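User: If only I could read C-alpha cells as easily as an amino acid sequence. Underneath my words sits a plain record pairing an amino acid chain with its C-alpha cells. This is the protein in question:
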Amino acid sequence: MTTTNRERILLVDTNPLFLERLAQKLRARNFDVVATGSGEQAFHVLRDWTLPVDWLFSRASLPGLIDGWILADEYHDDHPNRAAVIAAAQARVSAQGHTVLEDPSPAAVLDTLSGLMAQHHASEILSHAEREEGQLAA
C-alpha cells in the first residue's frame, strides 16, 4: 500500500477515548482515518464521493436520528461485498453480512478490521488472477 493511495476508514463512536485510541492505532498502520462521535456527521462523510470511505466501524447505538445500523446500510450501498464492523450491546447476525461485535475493545476492532481487509484483498487478487487466466485462455 502506498502513502498516496491510503485506505480511508470511518470510525463512529460516542466514547472519545475509545475513538482516539482506535484512530491512533489505525493511523500508525498508515490508514487515512476519519473519526466522529455523531451519526449525522458520519452520514455526511459517507455521502462525500470526492473522498470515499473504504471501511466502516460504528457503534450501533448513537445519539440523534442516524445510528450505526443506518450508517452500515449506507456503507453497504457503495460496498456490497464488504462488511461494516458494528459494536453492539450483544452480538447478533446481520442480514447484510456486517460483523457485529459485543462491546469490543479497540484491539478487537483493529483485529476484526484487519481480518476483513485481508480477506477482501485476497479475494481481489484471486479475482484478478482468474480474469487474467480467462483472457489467456481466450
